[in-house]
Write a structure and sequence with these properties.
Elements (H helix, E strand, L loop, with lengths): L5 H9 L4 E3 L3 H17 L3 E3 L2 H10 L7 E8 L17 H4 L9 H9 L1 H14 L6 E5 L5 E7 L4 E5 L5 H9 L31 H12 L3 H17 L5 H13 L9 H14 L1
Parallel strand pairs: 1-2, 3-4
Antiparallel strand pairs: 3-5, 5-6
Helix pairs in contact: 1-2, 2-6, 2-9, 3-6, 5-9, 6-8, 8-10, 9-10, 9-11
Length: about 280
C-alpha cells in the first residue's frame, strides 16, 4: 500500500515481469519513471482498480481511436451531500464507514476526502496517456458503472458490474482471457434500474481539486501531495488532527511547493522522504 509499492513495481518491470497494479500511488509519484520503463521493457501493466480496469476494457479494440474524455466514476464516499460546515466534527469511526466498498483504513479515509479519486485521476493520466483536463469525475453512488470513455464522435462506452473487486482482479490475472465467475451477477431490474450521476463538490472536498492541480503542475508536485497525504491520514487515524485540518494542511503543503521536473527514481524517493519529515 502507498508509496512503498513504487520500488517493487520498478524492479518487477526491470526483471521482465508483467504487473497487475493494485497500487495507485506507484503511478501518482512515479508515473513518468514507471511508464517509461513499461515502454522500454515491453511488459504489461494491467490495472486492478475497478475504475481503471473499466477504462482499460472500454479501450480494448479502440487503441487507435482518439479519446475525447475519460469518465472516472466515484461513489462519493460516506459524506456525499454534506457541506464543509457539516464536517467540522467528523470522527475516525464515521470516516471509516464507506457505503459501498470494504477497504483498508487508509484508502477508506482517502475515499472520505475524495483524495482517492484524485489519486486515480493521476493514475489514469499515466495509464491512458491523457491530460488531466480530459478526465471528468462523476459521482455515481450506486457503484455499478465503474468508468467509461467518450470518443471524438461523442459516443460513450462504459463498463458495468456489481461492486466486487474479484471481477477486475480476475480480469488482470487471466488477461487476455476472462475467467469464469460463479458469483453474483448484475441484476438490471434491481441494482441497475436507478443509476444516477452528480458533479463532485470541489469546495467541500478540496483534495480532488488539489489532485487536478498537482497533476497539472507535474514533476514533483504529485510526489509531495502523496507523501503529505499519507502522513496526514495517519495523523487523523491516530486522533492527532481533525478531518478538515487534514485536508487544509495538505492543500497548504502542495501549494507551497515549487515543482521540480525530470525526476529519477532516486529523486522521487528523496523528495518523498523529505516531505514526510517536514509534514
Amino acid at each position: 500500500m502507498g508509496m512503498r509499492g513504487l520500488e517493487p513495481t520498478y524492479h518487477a518491470l526491470m526483471n521482465g515481469t508483467d504487473v497487475a497494479l493494485a497500487n495507485k500511488e506507484t503511478l501518482v509519484a512515479g508515473g513518468s519513471v514507471i511508464m517509461d520503463l513499461v515502454k522500454r521493457t515491453g511488459r504489461k501493466l494491467l490495472p486492478i482498480d475497478s475504475e481503471h480496469s473499466a477504462i482499460f476494457q472500454c479501450l480494448e479494440g479502440n487503441r487507435d481511436r482518439k479519446v475525447k474524455k475519460i469518465l472516472l466514476t466515484c461513489s462519493g464516499g460516506p459524506f456525499r451531500g454534506r457541506k464543509r460546515s457539516q464536517l467540522t466534527t467528523v470522527t475516525r469511526e464515521e470516516a471509516l464507514k464507506h457505503p459501498r466498498w470494504d477497504m483498508g483504513a487508509k484508502i477508506t479515509i482517502d475515499s472520505a476526502t475524495l483524495m482517492n479519486k484524485g489519486l486515480e485521476v493521476i493514475e489514469a493520466k499515466w495509464l491512458f496517456d491523457v491530460e488531466p483536463e480530459n478526465i471528468q469525475v462523476l459521482v455515481h453512488p450506486q457503484s455499478i458503472v465503474h468508468s467509461g470513455v467518450e470518443f471524438m464522435d461523442n459516443s460513450v462506452l462504459c463498463q458495468l458490474g456489481v461492486p466486487d473487486m474479484r471481477i477486475p482482479i480476475s480480469l488482470a490475472l487471466g488477461y487476455p482471457e476472462r475467467l469464469d465467475n460463479p458469483d453474483r451477477e448484475l441484476d438490471f431490474f434491481t441494482e441497475g434500474s436507478n443509476l444516477t450521476f452528480e458533479k463532485p463538490d470541489l469546495e467541500t472536498f478540496k483534495c480532488l481539486g488539489l489532485a487536478f492541480f498537482a497533476a497539472g503542475e507535474g514533476g514533483s508536485s504529485p510526489v509531495v501531495m502523496n507523501a503529505a497525504n499519507e502522513v496526514l491520514v495517519q495523523r487523523f487515524l491516530e486522533g492527532r488532527i481533525g478531518f478538515l485540518e487534514m485536508q487544509d494542511k495538505l492543500w497548504d503543503t502542495v501549494h507551497a511547493h515549487k515543482a521540480v521536473k525530470d525526476l529519477t527514481l532516486e529523486d522521487i524517493l528523496s523528495i518523498d522522504k523529505e516531505t514526510r519529515e517536514r509534514v
